[in-house]
Design goal:
single chain; about 220 residues; alpha/beta; five-stranded mixed beta sheet; about 20% helix; C-N_Hydrolase; Biotinidase/VNN; VNN1-like protein; C-N_Hydrolase_sf
């Protein structure tokens, strides 16, 4: 965080899976309920909810104490009812989730990842409806998506082509798959091809092929 302050950053994006485990049951203890930010404004740093929102409180305080926007990827548990045909048998959705906090630490946006790969589907659920998540900053309007969402029309191309979003904040766990799926080359080409800005924060585990973050 000292580097953030020194360089006067206004927006930081964390990678996908930065604080999570890798199986559904092992993941569950680390998930938190994430409310809809469209409700009453909530500042977790000023009004923490104990261990129920420990990660959200930490992220909120990082944003507030450094006067920056924070985009991070965490996991959420959202209760559902049996009348929801997509509801899991334990009546709890587990979503791969992006959260956004403004420079005051206020929680302003939430996105549930729509496009899960086969490995992710062992421990995360696909949201019943596509969610398009947009937030405004003094330096432009942003949308947030997650990793391989960038490969699909929904939500990414709809955000760019229909909703006129020109700034994309994207946590990622993007594995290098040459020649066409190299993170830096793909994200750079996506930004140039659609004339938008992409802030991509990739998981950095070089031995497993996860690397390549950038601002394009």
């Amino acid at each position: 965080m000292q580097t953030v302050t020194k360089n006067k950053a206004k927006n930081i994006v964390f990678s996908e899976y930065g604080v999570l485990g890798w199986t559904r049951h092992k993941l569950a203890p680390f998930l938190e309920y994430i409310p809809d930010p469209a409700g009453s404004p909530w500042n977790p740093c000023d009004n923490p909810n104990g261990s129920v929102s420990a990660v959200q409180t930490l992220l909120s305080c990082i944003a507030k104490n450094n006067s920056i926007y924070v985009v991070a990827n965490i996991g959420s548990q959202q209760h559902c009812v049996s009348t929801d045909k997509s509801c899991p048998s334990d009546h709890v959705y587990q979503f791969n989730t992006n959260v956004v906090y403004d420079p005051r630490g206020i929680f302003i946006a939430r996105y549930f990842k729509c496009n899960l790969d086969s490995e992710e589907m062992q421990y995360f659920d696909r949201p019943p409806v596509v969610n398009h998540t947009i937030f405004d900053t003094p330096f432009g309007r942003f949308a947030t998506v997650c990793s391989n969402d960038i490969l699909y029309k929904e939500p990414t191309l709809t955000l760019v082509k229909t909703m006129n979003i020109t700034n994309l904040a994207m946590p990622a766990a993007w594995k290098e798959e040459l020649p066409l799926m190299s993170a830096i080359e793909f994200h750079s080409a996506f930004a140039e091809g659609l004339l938008i800005n992409v802030l991509a924060a990739n998981l950095h585990v070089v031995d497993l092929g996860y690397y390549g973050s950038g601002l394009y």
